[in-house]
Design goal:
The chain is an alpha/beta fold. It has 7 helices and 19 strands. Strands 1, 2, 5, 6, 7, 8 and 19 form a 7-stranded mixed sheet that branches. Strands 10-17-11-12-13 form a 5-stranded parallel sheet, with helices on one face. Strand 14 and strand 15 form a beta hairpin. Helix 1 packs parallel to helix 2, helix 1 packs parallel to helix 7 and helix 5 runs parallel beside helix 6. The structure holds NADPH dihydro-nicotinamide-adenine-dinucleotide phosphate.
Length: about 325
Protein backbone atom coordinates (compact mmCIF):
# COMPACT_ATOMS: atom_id res chain seq x y z
CA UNK A 1 0.00 0.00 0.00
CA UNK A 2 1.37 3.34 -0.97
CA UNK A 3 0.25 6.91 -1.45
CA UNK A 4 1.53 8.97 -4.36
CA UNK A 5 0.76 12.45 -5.61
CA UNK A 6 0.52 13.45 -9.29
CA UNK A 7 -0.12 16.75 -11.02
CA UNK A 8 -2.37 15.05 -13.56
CA UNK A 9 -4.06 11.71 -13.28
CA UNK A 10 -5.84 10.20 -16.24
CA UNK A 11 -8.35 7.46 -15.60
CA UNK A 12 -8.84 5.09 -18.53
CA UNK A 13 -6.70 3.95 -21.43
CA UNK A 14 -8.97 4.12 -24.47
CA UNK A 15 -8.52 6.64 -27.27
CA UNK A 16 -9.55 9.53 -25.00
CA UNK A 17 -7.25 8.65 -22.09
CA UNK A 18 -4.21 7.94 -24.26
CA UNK A 19 -4.66 11.14 -26.24
CA UNK A 20 -4.99 13.14 -23.01
CA UNK A 21 -1.78 11.42 -21.86
CA UNK A 22 0.11 12.29 -25.06
CA UNK A 23 -0.85 15.96 -24.82
CA UNK A 24 -0.27 16.40 -21.08
CA UNK A 25 3.06 14.57 -21.32
CA UNK A 26 4.19 16.82 -24.16
CA UNK A 27 3.17 19.80 -22.01
CA UNK A 28 5.67 18.58 -19.41
CA UNK A 29 3.01 17.65 -16.85
CA UNK A 30 4.36 14.10 -16.31
CA UNK A 31 0.92 12.47 -16.38
CA UNK A 32 0.09 9.15 -14.82
CA UNK A 33 -2.54 7.04 -16.51
CA UNK A 34 -4.38 4.41 -14.52
CA UNK A 35 -6.10 1.65 -16.47
CA UNK A 36 -8.36 -1.10 -15.26
CA UNK A 37 -9.22 -4.53 -16.61
CA UNK A 38 -9.48 -3.61 -20.30
CA UNK A 39 -6.34 -1.67 -21.23
CA UNK A 40 -6.93 0.03 -24.56
CA UNK A 41 -10.67 0.24 -23.99
CA UNK A 42 -13.40 -0.74 -26.41
CA UNK A 43 -11.14 -0.52 -29.48
CA UNK A 44 -9.37 -3.65 -28.26
CA UNK A 45 -12.54 -5.64 -28.85
CA UNK A 46 -13.02 -4.45 -32.42
CA UNK A 47 -11.25 -5.81 -35.46
CA UNK A 48 -11.22 -3.84 -38.71
CA UNK A 49 -11.10 -0.05 -38.37
CA UNK A 50 -11.68 1.79 -41.62
CA UNK A 51 -12.61 5.24 -40.37
CA UNK A 52 -9.70 6.39 -38.21
CA UNK A 53 -8.12 9.22 -40.24
CA UNK A 54 -4.57 8.74 -41.44
CA UNK A 55 -4.85 5.07 -42.30
CA UNK A 56 -6.04 4.45 -45.85
CA UNK A 57 -5.62 0.69 -45.42
CA UNK A 58 -7.79 -1.24 -42.96
CA UNK A 59 -6.17 -1.33 -39.53
CA UNK A 60 -6.93 -3.40 -36.44
CA UNK A 61 -8.43 -1.78 -33.32
CA UNK A 62 -6.03 -3.46 -30.85
CA UNK A 63 -3.05 -2.45 -33.02
CA UNK A 64 -4.20 1.19 -33.07
CA UNK A 65 -4.43 1.23 -29.27
CA UNK A 66 -0.96 -0.34 -28.95
CA UNK A 67 0.40 2.45 -31.13
CA UNK A 68 -1.34 5.12 -29.02
CA UNK A 69 -0.03 3.55 -25.82
CA UNK A 70 3.53 3.36 -27.19
CA UNK A 71 3.25 7.02 -28.21
CA UNK A 72 1.92 8.04 -24.77
CA UNK A 73 4.72 6.16 -22.97
CA UNK A 74 7.29 7.44 -25.44
CA UNK A 75 6.57 11.04 -24.53
CA UNK A 76 6.68 10.38 -20.79
CA UNK A 77 3.39 8.94 -19.49
CA UNK A 78 3.58 6.59 -16.53
CA UNK A 79 1.11 3.72 -16.89
CA UNK A 80 -0.33 2.03 -13.80
CA UNK A 81 -2.64 -0.98 -13.73
CA UNK A 82 -5.14 -0.75 -10.87
CA UNK A 83 -8.94 -0.79 -10.53
CA UNK A 84 -10.03 2.44 -8.89
CA UNK A 85 -12.74 1.54 -6.38
CA UNK A 86 -13.23 4.86 -4.63
CA UNK A 87 -13.00 8.50 -5.69
CA UNK A 88 -13.16 11.51 -3.42
CA UNK A 89 -13.51 14.70 -5.44
CA UNK A 90 -14.81 16.81 -2.55
CA UNK A 91 -11.35 17.37 -1.07
CA UNK A 92 -8.15 18.73 -2.58
CA UNK A 93 -6.01 17.19 -3.81
CA UNK A 94 -8.52 14.75 -5.37
CA UNK A 95 -8.13 11.28 -3.94
CA UNK A 96 -8.54 7.94 -5.69
CA UNK A 97 -8.16 4.53 -4.08
CA UNK A 98 -7.28 1.40 -6.06
CA UNK A 99 -8.29 -2.16 -5.22
CA UNK A 100 -4.57 -2.75 -4.67
CA UNK A 101 -5.01 -0.50 -1.62
CA UNK A 102 -2.80 2.19 -3.19
CA UNK A 103 -3.96 5.79 -2.88
CA UNK A 104 -3.46 8.28 -5.72
CA UNK A 105 -3.89 12.01 -5.22
CA UNK A 106 -3.84 14.61 -7.96
CA UNK A 107 -4.34 18.30 -8.71
CA UNK A 108 -6.16 17.66 -11.99
CA UNK A 109 -8.14 14.59 -12.95
CA UNK A 110 -9.14 13.54 -16.47
CA UNK A 111 -11.92 10.94 -16.43
CA UNK A 112 -11.86 8.72 -19.52
CA UNK A 113 -13.48 5.59 -18.12
CA UNK A 114 -15.52 4.89 -21.26
CA UNK A 115 -18.60 2.77 -21.57
CA UNK A 116 -19.47 -0.91 -21.66
CA UNK A 117 -22.01 -3.13 -23.36
CA UNK A 118 -25.59 -3.21 -22.11
CA UNK A 119 -27.50 -6.43 -21.45
CA UNK A 120 -31.21 -7.12 -21.85
CA UNK A 121 -31.45 -8.18 -18.20
CA UNK A 122 -33.16 -11.55 -18.75
CA UNK A 123 -32.51 -14.45 -16.42
CA UNK A 124 -31.64 -16.86 -19.27
CA UNK A 125 -29.29 -14.28 -20.80
CA UNK A 126 -27.38 -14.10 -17.53
CA UNK A 127 -27.44 -17.87 -17.04
CA UNK A 128 -25.69 -18.51 -20.38
CA UNK A 129 -23.41 -15.45 -20.35
CA UNK A 130 -19.97 -16.72 -21.35
CA UNK A 131 -21.48 -20.07 -22.40
CA UNK A 132 -23.10 -19.04 -25.68
CA UNK A 133 -24.36 -15.57 -24.78
CA UNK A 134 -21.87 -12.78 -25.52
CA UNK A 135 -21.73 -9.01 -26.03
CA UNK A 136 -18.65 -9.12 -28.22
CA UNK A 137 -18.72 -10.84 -31.61
CA UNK A 138 -15.13 -9.98 -32.36
CA UNK A 139 -14.01 -11.59 -29.10
CA UNK A 140 -16.14 -14.73 -29.29
CA UNK A 141 -17.23 -15.08 -32.94
CA UNK A 142 -14.45 -17.52 -33.69
CA UNK A 143 -16.05 -20.12 -31.41
CA UNK A 144 -19.09 -20.30 -33.71
CA UNK A 145 -17.37 -21.55 -36.83
CA UNK A 146 -19.87 -23.66 -38.77
CA UNK A 147 -22.70 -22.91 -36.32
CA UNK A 148 -25.84 -20.75 -36.26
CA UNK A 149 -26.04 -17.62 -34.14
CA UNK A 150 -28.28 -14.61 -33.49
CA UNK A 151 -27.58 -10.92 -32.91
CA UNK A 152 -29.94 -8.64 -30.98
CA UNK A 153 -30.01 -4.93 -31.88
CA UNK A 154 -30.34 -2.59 -34.84
CA UNK A 155 -27.56 -0.02 -34.45
CA UNK A 156 -24.10 0.14 -36.04
CA UNK A 157 -22.64 -2.23 -33.48
CA UNK A 158 -25.28 -4.91 -34.06
CA UNK A 159 -24.95 -4.68 -37.83
CA UNK A 160 -21.13 -4.75 -37.76
CA UNK A 161 -21.19 -7.71 -35.39
CA UNK A 162 -23.68 -9.59 -37.57
CA UNK A 163 -21.56 -9.01 -40.68
CA UNK A 164 -18.43 -10.06 -38.81
CA UNK A 165 -20.13 -13.21 -37.55
CA UNK A 166 -20.91 -14.31 -41.13
CA UNK A 167 -17.15 -14.94 -41.45
CA UNK A 168 -17.52 -17.77 -38.97
CA UNK A 169 -21.15 -18.83 -38.62
CA UNK A 170 -23.26 -20.61 -41.25
CA UNK A 171 -26.25 -18.35 -40.52
CA UNK A 172 -26.83 -15.17 -38.50
CA UNK A 173 -30.35 -14.28 -37.40
CA UNK A 174 -30.70 -10.62 -36.62
CA UNK A 175 -33.41 -9.75 -34.09
CA UNK A 176 -34.57 -6.14 -34.17
CA UNK A 177 -37.51 -4.71 -32.24
CA UNK A 178 -38.60 -2.41 -35.09
CA UNK A 179 -38.96 -2.74 -38.87
CA UNK A 180 -36.15 -0.29 -39.60
CA UNK A 181 -32.50 -0.36 -38.62
CA UNK A 182 -30.79 2.51 -36.83
CA UNK A 183 -27.41 1.65 -38.41
CA UNK A 184 -25.91 3.79 -41.18
CA UNK A 185 -27.07 3.05 -44.75
CA UNK A 186 -23.80 1.64 -46.08
CA UNK A 187 -23.71 -0.95 -43.29
CA UNK A 188 -27.38 -1.76 -43.83
CA UNK A 189 -26.72 -2.46 -47.51
CA UNK A 190 -23.84 -4.76 -46.65
CA UNK A 191 -25.97 -6.57 -44.09
CA UNK A 192 -29.07 -7.00 -46.18
CA UNK A 193 -27.15 -8.22 -49.22
CA UNK A 194 -25.37 -10.90 -47.22
CA UNK A 195 -26.97 -14.29 -47.93
CA UNK A 196 -26.03 -15.64 -44.48
CA UNK A 197 -28.15 -13.00 -42.71
CA UNK A 198 -31.80 -13.56 -41.87
CA UNK A 199 -33.72 -10.58 -40.49
CA UNK A 200 -36.30 -11.13 -37.76
CA UNK A 201 -38.04 -7.73 -37.85
CA UNK A 202 -40.37 -6.40 -35.15
CA UNK A 203 -39.03 -9.04 -32.81
CA UNK A 204 -37.60 -9.36 -29.34
CA UNK A 205 -35.58 -12.10 -27.71
CA UNK A 206 -37.93 -13.84 -25.30
CA UNK A 207 -35.62 -16.47 -23.85
CA UNK A 208 -32.26 -18.10 -24.43
CA UNK A 209 -32.62 -21.89 -24.41
CA UNK A 210 -29.89 -24.24 -23.33
CA UNK A 211 -28.88 -27.39 -21.55
CA UNK A 212 -26.18 -28.66 -19.28
CA UNK A 213 -25.02 -32.21 -19.99
CA UNK A 214 -21.32 -31.76 -19.21
CA UNK A 215 -19.48 -29.45 -16.79
CA UNK A 216 -20.53 -26.28 -18.72
CA UNK A 217 -23.98 -25.08 -19.75
CA UNK A 218 -24.49 -24.53 -23.48
CA UNK A 219 -26.94 -22.62 -25.64
CA UNK A 220 -29.16 -24.72 -27.89
CA UNK A 221 -31.69 -22.19 -29.13
CA UNK A 222 -33.86 -19.17 -28.45
CA UNK A 223 -37.47 -18.07 -28.28
CA UNK A 224 -38.33 -14.93 -30.23
CA UNK A 225 -41.53 -12.90 -29.91
CA UNK A 226 -42.96 -10.94 -32.82
CA UNK A 227 -44.11 -7.72 -31.17
CA UNK A 228 -46.79 -7.10 -33.80
CA UNK A 229 -48.44 -10.54 -33.84
CA UNK A 230 -47.30 -11.68 -30.36
CA UNK A 231 -46.33 -14.99 -31.96
CA UNK A 232 -43.44 -16.79 -30.26
CA UNK A 233 -41.14 -18.92 -32.42
CA UNK A 234 -38.34 -21.26 -31.39
CA UNK A 235 -35.03 -21.35 -33.23
CA UNK A 236 -32.15 -23.83 -32.89
CA UNK A 237 -28.74 -22.17 -32.65
CA UNK A 238 -25.60 -22.10 -30.54
CA UNK A 239 -24.76 -18.47 -29.87
CA UNK A 240 -26.62 -15.27 -29.02
CA UNK A 241 -24.87 -11.90 -29.29
CA UNK A 242 -26.37 -8.89 -27.53
CA UNK A 243 -25.53 -5.56 -29.22
CA UNK A 244 -28.03 -3.05 -27.83
CA UNK A 245 -25.79 -0.17 -26.87
CA UNK A 246 -23.57 0.85 -24.01
CA UNK A 247 -23.58 2.08 -20.43
CA UNK A 248 -21.01 4.64 -19.29
CA UNK A 249 -18.62 3.62 -16.52
CA UNK A 250 -19.50 6.34 -14.03
CA UNK A 251 -20.64 4.49 -10.87
CA UNK A 252 -17.47 5.72 -9.18
CA UNK A 253 -18.69 9.31 -9.44
CA UNK A 254 -22.32 8.95 -8.32
CA UNK A 255 -23.37 11.99 -6.24
CA UNK A 256 -20.08 13.73 -7.05
CA UNK A 257 -20.23 14.61 -10.73
CA UNK A 258 -23.26 15.68 -12.74
CA UNK A 259 -24.70 12.95 -14.98
CA UNK A 260 -27.59 12.68 -17.43
CA UNK A 261 -30.36 10.11 -16.91
CA UNK A 262 -28.28 7.40 -18.65
CA UNK A 263 -25.28 8.08 -16.41
CA UNK A 264 -23.11 9.95 -18.95
CA UNK A 265 -21.01 12.69 -17.34
CA UNK A 266 -22.14 16.19 -18.15
CA UNK A 267 -19.47 18.60 -19.32
CA UNK A 268 -19.80 22.29 -20.04
CA UNK A 269 -20.62 23.31 -23.63
CA UNK A 270 -17.55 23.26 -25.93
CA UNK A 271 -15.47 22.03 -23.01
CA UNK A 272 -14.52 18.90 -21.08
CA UNK A 273 -14.85 20.68 -17.72
CA UNK A 274 -17.20 19.09 -15.19
CA UNK A 275 -18.86 21.10 -12.44
CA UNK A 276 -15.82 20.47 -10.22
CA UNK A 277 -12.92 22.75 -11.25
CA UNK A 278 -9.90 20.54 -12.06
CA UNK A 279 -11.97 17.50 -13.04
CA UNK A 280 -12.35 16.95 -16.78
CA UNK A 281 -14.17 14.21 -18.69
CA UNK A 282 -13.41 12.97 -22.19
CA UNK A 283 -14.43 10.17 -24.54
CA UNK A 284 -17.44 7.86 -24.37
CA UNK A 285 -17.96 8.55 -20.66
CA UNK A 286 -19.31 11.99 -21.60
CA UNK A 287 -20.45 11.35 -25.17
CA UNK A 288 -23.65 9.44 -25.81
CA UNK A 289 -23.95 10.81 -29.31
CA UNK A 290 -20.86 10.27 -31.46
CA UNK A 291 -18.95 7.55 -29.60
CA UNK A 292 -16.17 7.22 -32.18
CA UNK A 293 -12.49 6.59 -31.51
CA UNK A 294 -11.64 9.80 -33.33
CA UNK A 295 -14.10 11.91 -31.32
CA UNK A 296 -12.85 10.30 -28.11
CA UNK A 297 -9.30 11.21 -29.11
CA UNK A 298 -10.51 14.74 -29.90
CA UNK A 299 -12.10 15.28 -26.50
CA UNK A 300 -9.04 13.66 -24.86
CA UNK A 301 -6.95 16.38 -26.48
CA UNK A 302 -9.39 19.07 -25.29
CA UNK A 303 -9.27 17.72 -21.72
CA UNK A 304 -5.46 17.78 -21.74
CA UNK A 305 -5.35 21.39 -22.93
CA UNK A 306 -7.95 22.43 -20.38
CA UNK A 307 -6.14 20.59 -17.57
CA UNK A 308 -2.89 22.30 -18.57
CA UNK A 309 -4.58 25.71 -18.44
CA UNK A 310 -6.24 24.89 -15.11
CA UNK A 311 -2.92 23.85 -13.54
CA UNK A 312 -1.12 26.94 -14.85
CA UNK A 313 -3.81 29.16 -13.33
CA UNK A 314 -3.68 27.22 -10.05
CA UNK A 315 0.09 27.64 -9.90
CA UNK A 316 -0.15 31.37 -10.66
CA UNK A 317 -2.75 31.83 -7.90
CA UNK A 318 -0.59 29.92 -5.40
CA UNK A 319 2.47 31.98 -6.33
CA UNK A 320 0.57 35.24 -5.97
CA UNK A 321 -0.70 34.14 -2.54
CA UNK A 322 2.84 33.23 -1.43
CA UNK A 323 4.28 36.62 -2.46
P1 LIG B 1 -27.13 2.30 -30.52
O1 LIG B 1 -27.65 2.96 -29.32
O2 LIG B 1 -26.84 3.08 -31.75
O3 LIG B 1 -28.10 1.14 -30.97
C1 LIG B 1 -28.66 0.26 -30.05
C2 LIG B 1 -29.62 -0.69 -30.78
O4 LIG B 1 -30.11 -1.64 -29.87
C3 LIG B 1 -30.81 0.07 -31.38
O5 LIG B 1 -31.14 -0.46 -32.64
C4 LIG B 1 -31.92 -0.21 -30.36
O6 LIG B 1 -33.19 -0.31 -30.93
C5 LIG B 1 -31.53 -1.57 -29.82
N1 LIG B 1 -31.94 -1.73 -28.42
C6 LIG B 1 -31.64 -0.94 -27.37
N2 LIG B 1 -32.16 -1.42 -26.23
C7 LIG B 1 -32.83 -2.55 -26.58
C8 LIG B 1 -33.59 -3.49 -25.86
N3 LIG B 1 -33.75 -3.40 -24.54
N4 LIG B 1 -34.14 -4.51 -26.54
C9 LIG B 1 -33.97 -4.63 -27.88
N5 LIG B 1 -33.24 -3.77 -28.63
C10 LIG B 1 -32.69 -2.75 -27.98
O7 LIG B 1 -25.82 1.52 -30.02
P2 LIG B 1 -24.57 0.95 -30.83
O8 LIG B 1 -23.77 0.23 -29.82
O9 LIG B 1 -24.98 0.23 -32.03
O10 LIG B 1 -23.78 2.24 -31.30
C11 LIG B 1 -23.38 3.21 -30.35
C12 LIG B 1 -22.72 4.38 -31.06
O11 LIG B 1 -21.48 3.98 -31.61
C13 LIG B 1 -23.54 4.93 -32.20
O12 LIG B 1 -23.40 6.32 -32.23
C14 LIG B 1 -22.92 4.31 -33.41
O13 LIG B 1 -23.09 5.08 -34.58
C15 LIG B 1 -21.46 4.23 -33.01
N6 LIG B 1 -20.77 3.14 -33.70
C16 LIG B 1 -20.11 3.45 -34.86
C17 LIG B 1 -19.45 2.49 -35.56
C18 LIG B 1 -18.76 2.88 -36.83
O14 LIG B 1 -18.83 4.04 -37.20
N7 LIG B 1 -18.10 1.98 -37.52
C19 LIG B 1 -19.40 1.09 -35.11
C20 LIG B 1 -20.15 0.85 -33.90
C21 LIG B 1 -20.81 1.85 -33.22
P3 LIG B 1 -33.94 0.98 -31.54
O15 LIG B 1 -33.27 1.25 -32.85
O16 LIG B 1 -35.33 0.50 -31.69
O17 LIG B 1 -33.76 2.07 -30.54
Amino acid sequence: MSSQHHKVLILGSGAAGLTAAIYTARAGLEPTLIHGMQPGGQMTITTDVENYPGFPEVIQGPWLMEQMQAQAEGVGTTMISDMIVEADLQTRPFKLTGDSGDVYTCDALVVCTGAQAKWLGMESEQKYQGFGVSACATCDGFFYRGKEVAVVGGGNTAVEEAIYLTNHATKVKMIHRRDELRAEKLLQQRLLSNPKIEMLWDSTLEEVLGKQDGPMPEVTGMKVRNVKTDEVTEHDLEGVFIAIGHKPNTDLFTDQLEMDEEGYLITQPDSTATKIPGVFAAGDVQDNKFRQAVTAAGTGCMAALEAEKYLAEMEATEQAAAE
